[in-house]
Design brief:
By secondary structure, this protein is mainly alpha-helical. It folds into two domains: 1-109, no CATH class; 131-198, no CATH class. The protein has nine helices and no strands. The protein has helices at 11-14, 17-33, 37-54, 58-65, 69-83, 85-107, 111-121, 132-163, 169-193. 15% of the residues are buried. The mean pLDDT is 81.
């Protein structure tokens, strides 16, 4: 789930978080069961319609699957070599569509609503010493960290291009790790200021 909430007044925005998460689980289950290209094409149209109905915009929609482009390409090539064209298309489409659906959930769900949902899910574990609030906070921060790291990676790469630096894993990874650690420090200080440092 890599999206950042986009304010809106669509039906998806008004649905409760539990309904959207349940819909995501059901949709991904159906997605796994679909095996034909025709069925997946229909499912792709369904996902596209959901994005149109949500009104989040093309930029936000593209941002959900853009980080997957190289992974999807490698997966497609591997599946094509090992299993053939049909299997490669099906496997790649399943991953892309699942991520797109998960992204749509977070694009249309407020952070506070998602935290409340997670907290209710873990409520029964309070009896065995688990703090539902802290678990929900951890999960929510994990979800929200994905787009942050993706944005940091994009910023590092753009800075390299601006300096005319050719592609280098080392030159890319070191600034990214440093930026991620700085973000983690800032996040830790913010949590500490709110009394969540123990």
């Amino acid at each position: 789930m890599i999206g950042i909430y986009v304010p809106g007044d669509s039906l998806l925005h008004h649905l409760p978080a539990w309904a959207k998460v349940l819909g995501l689980v059901v949709s991904c289950t159906v997605l796994v069961l679909l095996g034909s290209l025709a069925a997946l094409a229909g499912f792709s149209a369904f996902v596209a319609i959901l994005y149109v109905v949500s009104g989040v915009g093309f930029t936000a929609a593209w941002a959900q699957i853009r980080p997957l482009r190289w992974f999807a390409l490698v997966l497609f090539v591997m599946q094509f070599v090992l299993m053939g064209l049909d299997t490669a298309v099906v496997s790649t489409l399943r991953i892309v569509l699942a991520v797109a659906l998960a992204g749509l959930v977070t694009l249309t769900t407020r952070f506070a609503d998602m935290m409340t949902f997670f907290e209710r899910c873990f409520g029964p574990l309070r009896g065995v010493g688990v703090d539902p609030f802290r678990v929900s906070l951890l999960l929510s921060l994990t979800v929200r960290s994905v787009p942050v790291i993706s944005a940091l990676a994009t910023r590092v790469r753009e800075a390299q291009r601006a300096r005319g630096v050719s592609w280098s894993m080392r030159a890319f990874a070191i600034p990214l790790v440093v930026s991620a650690l700085r973000h983690a420090d800032a996040l830790g200080e913010a949590l500490s200021a709110r009394g969540l440092d123990d």
